[in-house]
Design goal:
The chain has one domain. It is built from 7 helices and no strands. It has helices spanning 6-27, 44-54, 60-83, 87-109, 112-116, 119-129, 139-147.
C-alpha cells in the first residue's frame, strides 16, 4: 500500500515546527523590538512578564526558570519537527507542551486566549502527527533506510 501521508506529514511537520520556533525567536528579540509589527514580546523580560500572569502562584524567579525550560523545549521540538529527527517523540512533545499551555492559559486568563492562539489545534496536530507511520523526507527516514 502506498504511503498517502508523504506530503501531509511534511506540511504538518513544517507548520508545527514554525509554530514553535517563531515565538522563541520573538521572545529572544530576533523578530524585532517590542511594540513593532506583530511582535508579541520582543524581549525576554516582556515574555517573563506575560508568563508570570499565566503562573501567578509562582515567584518571578521560578517563572524565569520555567520559561527557560519551555523555550528550550520549544526550540528542540521545532527543530526536530522541521528536520524530521525523532519525529514521533517531537510530535508528542509538541502536544504535551501545548497542552500545558492550554491548562495554564485557561486557568489564568480564560479559555478564549488558547482558542485565539490556536493552541488546541497545535496540541491536536502534534498528537495526530505522532501516529503517522513514516516520515518521508526526514532524518528519521534516512536513518531507517540505512539500517535496512
Amino acid at each position: 500500500m502506498e504511503d498517502s501521508f508523504k506530503i501531509p506529514q511534511l506540511l504538518l511537520r513544517y507548520a508545527l515546527g514554525i509554530t514553535f520556533l517563531t515565538p522563541v525567536a520573538d521572545r529572544l528579540g530576533i523578530l524585532g523590538a517590542p511594540g513593532t509589527g506583530n511582535i508579541e514580546w520582543g524581549n525576554w523580560s516582556n515574555f517573563i512578564d506575560y508568563t508570570t500572569t499565566l503562573m501567578p502562584v509562582f515567584e518571578r524567579s521560578i517563572v524565569n526558570v520555567m520559561g527557560s525550560i519551555a523555550t528550550i523545549g520549544e526550540l528542540l521540538v521545532g527543530i526536530c519537527l522541521i528536520i524530521g529527527f525523532k519525529t514521533k517523540y517531537a510530535a508528542i512533545g509538541a502536544s504535551l507542551i501545548t497542552l500545558t499551555f492550554i491548562v495554564f492559559m485557561t486557568l489564568s486568563v480564560g479559555i478564549q486566549k488558547p482558542v485565539n492562539y490556536g493552541v488546541f489545534t497545535a496540541s491536536a496536530a502534534g498528537f495526530l502527527l505522532s501516529f503517522i507511520p513514516n516520515y518521508k523526507w526526514s532524518i528519521d527516514n534516512l536513518l531507517n533506510n540505512k539500517t535496512k
